[in-house]
Design a protein that fits this description.
By secondary structure, this protein is of the alpha+beta class. Strands 1-6-7-5 form a four-stranded antiparallel beta sheet, with no helix packed on it. The protein has a four-stranded antiparallel beta sheet with strand order 2-3-4-8, with helices on one face. The chain has eight helices and ten strands. Pfam families: Fapy_DNA_glyco, H2TH, zf-FPG_IleRS.
Length: about 290
């Protein structure tokens, strides 16, 4: 799933490639992605692209006051196409959900595709004049890179969630998902199952610093990359996430995993839990 660093990179990519162009035809290949119908997606056609924006994991393109907003969810992605096919795509064929064509000032006719892999179709698209009308945006907490340390501390102390869940709860802090929460907690040397509300001042400061540093580093590596390369760039910086069984680059211990029904997370026992192994069962507790 694209998280804040990839969304910021895609935002910058669209700022460089789409802003200043005119929206041409909009092809909808999967009707289920559209979450709004008034105004219709065809209302974007003929409008100038005047800006871009993001809200947590939501990415938006401003078409002269009318926003096209998407949440890519777990299997979605944005792909830039320099020379798209002239014929509209056939509905329901392949991963393509929606294609937006452009006319650039230079006379080119590129497009971007919103695609979604897998069988669980969760990619969503809204057309609206007010981004805050999108339910997911209206519920968001402060952006992870905009929240101050005192605000961050107040958020954590106002919840009894495990710190892993608190970091990924978009109503508390926007933009962090499964991957970067693993990396942030590893950098902060905290157990994923620590209670967010009982962290001491030093732990909160360390976690805040780790969050800022991890996300800033990922953004620095991602911005400027071609959209097609962002997934690989994201994986290249991981120390524990998606590295089960490999040595921790900090201490050399084996990176371990806790699996759930539809996801998993990774951690280093030496760096984060004092050598204690977290039980790998969905309903089990932290082994103390």
């Amino acid at each position: 799933m694209p998280e804040l660093p990839e969304i910021v990179a895609l935002e910058q990519f669209l700022a460089e490639h789409a802003v200043g162009a005119v929206v041409g035809r909009v092809d909808v290949s999967a009707l289920s992605v559209l979450k709004t119908f008034d105004p219709p997606v065809t209302a974007l056609q003929g409008r100038d692209v005047t800006g871009v924006g993001h809200w947590g994991k939501h990415l938006g393109m401003d078409c002269d006051g009318l926003w096209l907003i998407t949440h890519l969810s777990r299997g979605g992605w944005l792909r830039w196409v320099d020379e798209p096919a002239a014929a509209p795509p056939k509905p329901g064929k392949g991963p393509l959900a929606l294609r937006v064509h452009f006319f650039t000032p230079e006379g080119a006719t590129p497009a971007f595709d919103l695609t979604e892999a897998g069988t669980k179709k969760r990619l969503a698209v809204w057309v609206t004049s007010d981004p805050l009308s999108v339910p997911g945006i209206a519920r968001l907490g402060p952006d992870a890179l905009a929240v101050s340390e005192p605000e961050f501390a107040e958020i954590l102390r106002g919840t009894s969630q495990r710190v892993k869940n608190a970091l990924t709860d978009q109503t508390l802090i926007a933009g962090i998902g499964n991957a970067y929460s693993d990396e942030i907690l590893h950098t902060a040397r905290l157990s994923p199952f620590a209670n967010a509300g009982t962290l001491d001042d030093a732990q909160v400061t360390g976690l805040y610093s780790a969050m800022r540093a991890t996300l800033a580093d990922a953004i620095e590596r991602s911005v400027g990359q071609d959209a097609a390369r962002l997934k690989g760039e994201k994986r290249s910086g991981f120390q524990v996430h998606a590295r089960t069984g490999l040595p921790c680059p900090v201490c050399g211990d084996t990176v371990r995993e806790v699996s759930y029904a539809d996801k998993s997370f990774q951690y280093c026992a030496t760096c984060q839990t004092g050598g204690k192994i977290l039980a790998d069962r969905r309903m089990s507790r932290l082994l103390k």
